[in-house]
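Re: export button greyed out
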Amino acid sequence: MRILHISDTHIGGALDFCKEALDQTLEEVKRDKYDLIIHSGDLTQGGRREQFIQAKEILSGIDIPYIVLAGNHDARSGGLSLFEEYIGPLDGVRDLGDAVVIYVNSAMEDKDQGRMGMVKFNLMRKALNDYSEKLIKIIAIHHHVIPIPMAGRERNVLYNAGDMLDIILKEDVDLVLSGHRHYPNIYQIENTVFINAGTTSATKTRCGDVNSYNIIDIDQKARKVRTIRIDGKTQAYSFPKREKRIFSDLGDRKFRAVHTANTLISESSAFLKRNFTNAMDTIKGLEPDLMVHCGGIVKEGIAKDYDEAVSYLTELKFPIVYTPAGRDINFLGYYLFPTYFGGIDQRFSNGKILFQGVSSAQYDSHEGIVGPSQRKVLLRKLRSPENLKAVFIHHNVLPIPHSREKGLLEDSGDLLRELVDAQIDLILTGTSSHPFAARVENTIVVNANSLSSVYQRSIFGNSFNIIDIYEEAIAVFEVNSLWGRRRLLGIWERNKKQENNTGGFLWP
Amino acid sequence: MNLRYPAVYDLKRPIREIVTKRLIGVSQNASFREGVSKMVEFNISSLVVTNHDRVVGFMTDTDVKRAVAQGLTPDVKMERIMTTDLITVDISSSVREVLETMSKNKIKHLLVTEKGKVVGIVTLRDLEHMVRQKLETFISRE
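Workaround output, generated via the alternate export path:
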């Protein structure tokens, strides 16, 4: 099956629409056989009647099936009703035999951000259930689910991206097609390929890029994507399905890290002391090689809370590395954190495994940022000889279920892309208080729930994670703080490519 | 016979979203001790038994108890302990079909196949969790 994926055409904009680029792209349909065109939104520049009329005229020249989504620009000036009048339904399902395309509107009137409220979310879930047996499942949505690099002020825009990501992965969706940010970007997360198109014909491109479109070839085994730029440059990607489901030969366990966050130690009722002490007893019994605390050590950055935290945490006999949350450096915390717990970018290495921390905290703010200069410093620090590398940071780089996108790092799109491209094995995060783990290309991203505060979102209760590193695989468990019961969050094969690059796996 | 299940289950719902899609396994040539150690290490109540990544058997905690009661030693090979009569459901099956298969066979663990290949497992506990873990979004109504 071959799909032409176009996006963000911005038809009708006096200075924003480049008709020649769109004409050149649509010529592609005459050159090759396509089963479907998917336009992932922002068909028009401003949602005005004359723009929809012009768009309809252009679309009438296409003689193969197509699906067009509405984008935030189409939702301007009351444009969603005009979209339905001139173009078609905002949400729907297209049965293509072996494949199904579910397209859902995420645009809100006169807002740039996106949202999938309960009604649309459940429409999508129902369609995924109804078409569960299809060999190829595709979701098209204008706003991107995964943070986009080089995307300026709108890296993360879908309010409930975490819930979307959760259902996409649970339902084994093959492709998710989006647009919005005028920057082409592709990730394979678990077995789903998230394809973000650049702009096909808007003059507003990012980073000096030119207009582009994607050609997608998909069958049961493989997904091939070509991003074609109108200057003739082509990038090709192939995403084979990861078939490994059974893990029999893991080899010896080489390292065990305990991954915690949001202990919120304090004398307040927000701190659940029994959960904390039981969890610490369980952790001692696990005999970890390292504990990583991804921030939220104390409830407030005040001396009283720090005194309490120090009395609990300094009695632990294994190495611990910390990275602060905003609350840890609030008030006097900017002084207390480094005084009691060390520097803000802490590091652990045993020569074979590296855990590198990077602070994303700012005081008086829940929002996090690393920033371009510190990202460069981080990447330099990661150019070290260890053959397994992990980064730990408080804020999220992937959206987390049951929370809004606000836990995402301000520059999550850039940091995620850079760490994935650098083939970092693990990224550990610690906000949004819900456990989550998924593999992005060759990088496993794990988020920790709150270990011992009332502010947690998991129906399984407060918890922490175990990261077990075997010769052949990495396994991540969630462990309930109170009862010690554990469940497997995920297990993945070790990153072979990196091992080859470093001349083989060098365990003693 | 019409089976009745608690009304909390959405019986028509496909099991795909609740299936555990990664399985811990052990080679059929491994010892019973190795198999049980893996169940302890991963805190799981069942294990697939493999021959070169192909599932040839299955062992649950009930099989472990039975083997101990029969006096089998820890060194005995997994192939002597495992159940080879594999009962499976397709990943597109509904909750109703899974409950019917489980109750008919009096089992709490079912291997899940897709295109004839074992791709996961579903347990009675997963169905209990499904009731608690609703997939919903509370971002807004619309």
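Chain B is about 30% helix and 25% strand. The button fix ships in the next patch.
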